[in-house]
Design a protein that fits this description.
This protein is mainly α and 498 residues long. Among the domains are: 95 residues, no CATH class; 91 residues, no CATH class; 64 residues, no CATH class. Helix content is 59%, strand content 3%. α2 crosses α3 and α15 crosses α16. The longest helix has 35 residues. About 4% of the residues have low confidence.
């Protein structure tokens, strides 16, 4: 087993690290509450989101009824457009084109709403690990609306990730394999026994479960045959098995032979020790560091298999072990754009900007939710930081701290954009910096307090000297100057780490 952290080693800074990695960070009082629980209870409080006695209260802040109703209406519009598509008469052709334009417009609108809704959910949930895992699975099973072209299906896939976030890996694989968005994304809906499509079979093994080099081309071919018949109904927007499309012949996949179907392919994969190693390594890379020791992966994989592929025990071991809290790990992970934005909103104690602004921010920073760059998802790590994205991060800091919505810091020339900016600026709220400084009596105490609130890595002495030189008068800085200090901290290299 991994060596667990001792009770005496648990403290505020380690609680802050746990909340950063297993969530999106938090305010000092939230971290203090987690620290006071002790390590075991702190980890359990994050992991047991399905069993929480406060589950009803935890979900009270979110009501998807209206959103699902709108997405249902959007789905029906798309069905009407497809129904009219095959008609020959010119009047019906015009109706089809009009419907298509309307559907495309509505799809874009709902994409912005969905993205904003999910980011706001990350920022306000009482179960941050559930949303952090949903984000992990979105990157692991990377699916893009650019090809799926259906907001309703993308939202339902997001709910699949959330439902199985820390549950059973077998159940997760089966659910995702039958998910309409995934079936479209990897062309499984086009697979027939006469012409099996290998896209999903290949990515199931290469990207989702085993990794490159741990299967053969023959395994891909045979798995594609076994998966024929797994498709979906466009009218009902749900998974459907069609026996007439399924290849009923004998196949051999990863050493397993018989008249295999899609479920048998998943079972054949799970019998391979590499499957447990693969997902445990991916979890370690996401939550801990990029260089897991082989003995650590073997240890976690063994635990994973013994628990019949339950994810919670593995996650509990990760969040409880000494390695997770090692100085070589704490404050060394580059924040993803979603982590950066959600954490900033939480620690600044401000509402999330409006949907268009959130989408602009995420796109500029390199992580458009519901639109990963390819089937491999986002590379993460150092890829999050380059000259352009750092400039955007610094510009967005000003946006969030001062409460003005013009993320790029650029002049808007179009009247429509200018009107939108005016509306959003009036709705935005600056960070309540004065309240955080109320009890501080000196610039040194103020810097230490703000450093504790915002940074996982301490400021360098020259950075502190710059702050003192710029804002260090005989009294505590005024509100405008306080915002300047906060902006300085959030633009610092240390703030990009967690």
């Amino acid at each position: 087993m991994l060596t667990p952290l001792t009770k005496s080693e648990w403290n505020y800074s380690k609680a802050a690290h746990l909340l950063n990695r297993a969530g999106f960070g938090g305010k000092p009082e939230e971290i203090r509450t987690l620290a006071d629980l002790g390590l075991e209870s702190a980890v359990s409080s994050l992991l047991d989101f399905e069993k929480s006695k406060h589950q009803a209260d935890a979900m009270a802040w979110i009501d998807d009824t209206g959103r699902l109703d709108r997405l249902e209406a959007l789905k029906k519009m798309g069905q009407e457009a497809r129904k009219a598509q095959g008609e020959a008469k010119s009047t019906l052709e015009m109706k089809r084109r009009e419907l298509q334009r309307e559907v495309q417009k509505e799809q874009q609108k709902h994409l912005l709403e969905m993205r904003h809704h999910w980011v706001n959910r990350m920022a306000t949930t009482t179960h941050p690990l559930q949303e952090k895992l949903t984000l992990f699975w979105h990157g692991h099973f990377a699916t893009s609306i650019q090809k799926v072209k259906d907001a309703y299906s993308m939202w339902r896939q997001n709910e699949v990730f959330r439902k199985h976030a820390a549950g059973n890996w077998r159940h997760m694989l089966l659910a995702v394999s039958r998910d309409p968005a995934m079936l479209i994304w990897l062309d499984q809906n086009q697979s027939r026994k006469q012409h099996p499509n290998e896209n999903f079979a290949r990515e199931l093994m290469e990207l989702f479960t085993l990794g490159e080099g741990n299967y053969t081309e023959q395994d891909v071919t045979e798995a594609a045959r076994a998966l024929t018949g797994w498709t979906y109904s466009r009218t009902r927007d749900q998974f459907e098995y069609r026996s007439l499309m399924h290849d009923q012949g004998s196949k051999t996949v990863l050493g397993r032979t018989g008249m295999l179907n899609g479920g048998d392919v998943v079972e054949a994969i799970l019998t391979k020790p590499q499957a447990a190693k693969f997902i445990c390594q991916k979890l370690w890379l996401f939550f801990v560091d990029e260089e897991p020791e082989s003995v650590v992966v073997e240890n976690l994989a063994g635990q994973f298999r013994r628990s019949n592929f339950e994810l919670r025990p593995v996650l509990s071991s990760i969040f409880s072990c000494q390695k997770f809290y090692d100085p070589s790990v704490m404050g060394k992970q580059i924040k993803s754009p979603a982590q950066w934005l959600v954490g900033s909103v939480k620690m600044l104690e401000i509402p999330l900007p409006q949907p268009a602004s959130v989408s602009t921010m995420l796109k500029s920073l390199g992580q458009e939710l519901f639109m990963p760059p390819n089937v491999k998802g986002w590379d993460g790590g150092l890829s999050w930081i380059n000259t352009n994205t750092m400039v955007h991060r610094m510009n967005f800091v000003a946006t969030l701290v001062h409460g003005s919505i013009n993320p790029e810091g650029q002049e808007m020339t179009k009247r429509r954009d200018a009107r939108r900016q005016d509306r959003e600026t009036r709705r935005s709220k600056p960070a309540p910096v004065a309240g955080w400084a109320r009890s501080e009596k000196s610039i040194d105490g103020l810097i230490a307090s703000f450093e504790k609130r915002f940074l996982a890595v301490p400021l360098r002495q020259e950075q502190k000297a710059t702050l003192k030189q710029t804002w260090g008068g005989k009294s505590i800085p005024d509100e405008k100057q306080l915002r300047g200090i906060v902006q300085f901290l959030l633009a610092a290299p240390q703030y990009q780490l967690c």
